[in-house]
Amino acid sequence: MPAFLMRVSMQSSIVIKCKQCLSWRPSLIGQFVCSILLSLLPLCLVVILFLNALNKQLAVTQEIVGDNDEITKVFNNLKQDLNSLERATRQNWVLKSESLDTLIENKWSSSIQRIDELIFLSPTADYILQWRQLAEVLQFAQQHLLFEQKQDGELFAPASKLISEQTNWLREQNELRITKNQQQLKALQTSFINWLVALIPLTLLVGGGFLWRISGRLRELTSVIDKLGQGHWQQKINVRGSSELVELGNKLEWVQAQLHMLEQQKDTFLRHVTHELKTPLASMVEGTDLLTDEIVGPINDEQKAVLELITQSMVRLRAMIESLLSYNAIRTSKETVTELSFAAIKDKIERHFEHRLVAREQSLLWVDELPKKALYISIELLEMILIQLTSNAIKFSPEQGCITIKANFKHGKLIISVIDQGHGIDDSEKAAVFGAFYQGKNAKQQSEMGSGLGLTIVKETVEQLNGKLSITDNEPQGCVFTAELPIQLTQGVN
Question: What is the pTM of this model?
Answer without folding.
Answer: 0.47
